[in-house]
Amino acid sequence: MTCRLTMKRRVILVGFDALVPTVVERFSEEGSLPSISKMMASGAYARCLPCFPGMTPQNWTTMATGAYPGIHGITDFNLHKVGEPLEGSSAFRSSWCKAEYIWNTAEQHGKKCLLVNYIASYPPTIRKGILIGGDPSFSGSQLKTLRPYFCFVTEKAAVREGVIVQLVPARNWNVPVARKPAPLETRIALCDEKRSGPSYDLLVFSSNGSVYDRVFICKGKNVTRRVADLSVGQWSDWIVDTFEELEGAFKFKLVELSPDASVIRLYCTRVFPTNGFTTPTEIAAELVKEVGPLFCIVDGRPYILRWVDAATFIEEGSMQANWVADAVNYLVGKYGCDLVYSHIHFFDNFQHAFWGGFDPISPIFVPEEEGKYERLFLDAYSKVADSIVEKIVKKADENTFLVFVSDHGHIPFRKMVSINNLLAREGLVSGKLSSDGEPLVDWSRTKAWATRAGGHIYLNLRGREPTGVVHPEDYESMQDRVIDVLLGLRDPDNGERPVSMALKKEEARSLGLGGDTTGDVVYAMRKGYVGDNNWFPLTSDLSIFREAGAEGGMYSRPTSVHGCCLPSVDYGKGTEMAVFFLWGPEIKEGYKRESPIRMVDIAPTIAHILGVPAPAQSEGSILFDMFE
Predict the structure, then answer these.
(1) Section 442-471 average pLDDT
(2) 192-207: per-residue pLDDT in tens?
(3) Nearest Cα to 454, choosing from 52, 84, 71?
(4) pTM of the model
(5) Which residues face 416 on adjacent strands?
(6) Chain segment 95-123, per-residue pLDDT in tens
(7) How many CB atoms lie within 10 A of CB 3?
(8) What pLDDT score was predicted for residue 2?
(9) Side-chain half-sphere of 330: how many Cα atoms within 13 Å?
(10) What is the DSSP annotation of 367-411?
(11) What are phi and psi of 563, to 5 degrees?
(12) Neighbours of 150 (CB within 10 A)
C-alpha cells in the first residue's frame, strides 16, 4: 500500500505528557473540548500502547526513535550502567540513547528540525536545527532554572515550608495611600541557602480605606520603582532581574491576603534564565523578545505544599503550554522547520495531585466533591490541551501534518507497596540506620535492589557491580528467589497478589526490554497497587503496604499512577494507554482505529510523511490505515 504524499511536507508533533484517552474521549463526546472534537472529526485517532514500564523517558525516546527500550537503552527514570552504583543515574539525557533519533535521520536528508522542551533531547544531537531546553524538571537538560519557586507567608498562613515574613508598620515610603488601616511593609529575597538573589520591598495597604487588599512589590521603598501592583488572584507581568550575574525572569501571584493582613500568601514562580537555553545560543534572546520569557515546567509541589490553589496550578500549566505553542508557531513561521517535536509536562503532575478526587475507585474519593474535581479536570483539559490544539491548528498550512500524542495514561490505586522493604524483609537488601533514623544501604551485603520508579530489580552481581556479592554461578537461582518473593507477596486485607507478573531479564524481550539497562528481574503490579519506589522507598520500619493518600516520597498524597501495571490495563476512569491524533492532507477524516497503535509506530509513520527512511533502529510499522 502506498500513500500519495507528493507535496513538501511538514510534521509538527505536540506531546502532552500523560494526557489520558478515557478522559479526552469522554469530554470530547460531551462537546467540552471543541478543538479536539474537530480534530477527531477531520483526522485520525487511536489509543496508543506505551512501552513497559509506562514511564516518561523511555516512551518519549521510543516516540523519537521507533525503537523499544531494550534497543535504545532508556528503560526507566534512573538507569543502571554496568560498573556503576545500583542506585543508577538520571535517564533524561540523549547520551544514554543507543538508537538513532528521527531528527538525525531527517537532517541527513536535508530536513530542518526544531525541538522545543522535548524530553531527553539534550545534549543536542542535531547539527543544523534548533533545540530549546530539554525538560528542566529532570537533570540532563541544558536549561537550569536560576532559583526554585518561593512562597512568602505570614505565620498564620496554612502552608508547609513557606518563607515566613513579618508585616510591620510601613515607614519612609514616598506614596500617598490610605492611612487607615495603616500600611504595612516587609522585605523578601529570592535566595536560598547557597545562593543570593535580589531583594524587594512589599507595601501592603488598603485601596478603599477599609480593608487590606493591595500589595506593591518595589525595588526599595519607592513606588515609582515597583515591579508589581497586585490584588488577590492577580499575576504580575514578567519581572527580569539579576541572579549572581545571570539574568532571570519570573512572576509573582498574590494568592491570599486576609482583610486584616494577618494572612498573606505571595507566590513566586521558578526563575527562568533569559539566555543559555537554546542551540544555537542566539535563538534565546530572539524568543524572549518575540514570544516572552521562557516558561517551560510546572510541577505539583507548590500545590502539595498549599502555596497555591488548584486554579493557580492550572493557570501555570496554561502559561507553560502557551509558551511552548507560541515558540513552535513563531520558529516554524520564521525558519520554516520541516520536523517539530515538542513537549508539555503539565498533565502528569496535575493528575498525580488530583486524580483521587476525580475517580470513585480511589480510597480518598469523596462523593460530595466529585463535581468539584470534574470541573477541575475539564478546566485543565480545556485550557491546557484543547486551547493549544486550537492554537497549533490555526497556524497549520495545507502542507502541515499535526501529531498530538501522550506517552502514557493514569490510573487510580488503592495501596502503595515498597518493593525494597519487601526485599529487605527477605534478607536481600541489608542496611543500618543513620544518626537521624534513616535507612542506609549496606551494598557489601545487599543482593538485590529495585530501581527508582519501578519495574526493574538488579542483582548485585560479583564481577559486574562495584560491590557485587552474588556469585555468577548463583545468578539464575537468585533470579528465581526474587521472583518467588515478588509472586509470594499477598495483601493481608484481601489475599490478593499485588505483583501480577515477574520475569527473568531474558524472558522480558517479549515486552521490548533487554540489554544492559534492563533489570535482572522485571515485574508488573496488579491494578490497584503501586510499586513505584519514588513514593514508597526503603524505610526504617520495613513496612510493605501503605494506603493511598498516605505520605509518599515524591508527592505527599499521590493519587494516581502510571507505569506500574502492564500497558493495556484500564482501571476506574483511567487507563495506562496514551492518545494519538494524526491530522493533515490525505489523512482519513473521522477515522477511529479499533485497535491501539504501538509507541514504536509513531516515528516510522512520521518518517513516511516526510519522505525519509525510518530511524536506523526503528521497530515499528507505518500506520497506512490512517491514510486515504
Answers:
(1) 92
(2) 878 889 999 999 999 9
(3) 52
(4) 0.94
(5) 530, 546
(6) 889 999 999 999 999 999 999 999 888 88
(7) 14
(8) 40
(9) 18
(10) GGGHHHHHHHHHHHHIIIIIHHHHHHHHH--TTEEEEEE-S--BB
(11) 90, -15
(12) 24
CB atoms within 10 A of CB 25: 18
Residue count of the chain:
628
Cis peptide before 181 (omega within 30 of 0): yes
Let me know: does 388 contact 547? Beta carbons within 8 Å: no
Distance CA 308, CA 243 (A): 24
Residue where the block lists cell 537555553: 277
Q: Are 317 and 380 in contact (CB under 8 A)?
A: yes
Q: Which residues contact 155 (CB under 8 A, 6 or more apart)?
A: 164
Whole-angstrom distance, CA of residue 325 vs CA of residue 387: 10
Q: Which residue has the cell 507505569?
A: 563
pLDDT of 553: 44
Angle at 394 between CA 388 and CA 400, to 5 degrees: 100
- Whose cell is 532571570? That residue is 248
The residue type at 113:
C
For the stretch 542-584, pLDDT in tens is: 999 998 876 544 445 678 999 999 999 999 999 999 999 999 9
CA distance 109 to 155: 61
**Is the per-residue pLDDT at 482 higher than 90?**
yes
Is 103 exposed, middle or buried, given 0-12, 13-18 or 19+ CB atoms closer than 10 A? Answer: buried
DSSP letters for 500-543 = EEEEEGGGGGGGT--STTS-SEEEEEPTTEE--TTTS---TT--
Q: What is the rounded distance in angstroms from the CA atom of residue 600 to the CA atom of residue 72? A: 11
Q: Residue 12 in contact with residue 103, Cβ under 8 Å?
A: no
Residue closest to 72 by CA, chosen among 624, 623, 617: 617
